[in-house]
Amino acid sequence: MTATVQPALDGSVPEQRKTKTRQQAENYETWLAIVWPKFLEAAATGRTFTTYEIADAHQLPDPPSPQAHWGRLMTLLKDEGYIRTAGWACSDRPTAHHSGVRTWRGTAAARRAAA
Question: Domains of the chain by range and CATH?
Answer without folding.
Answer: 28-114 (1.10.10.10)
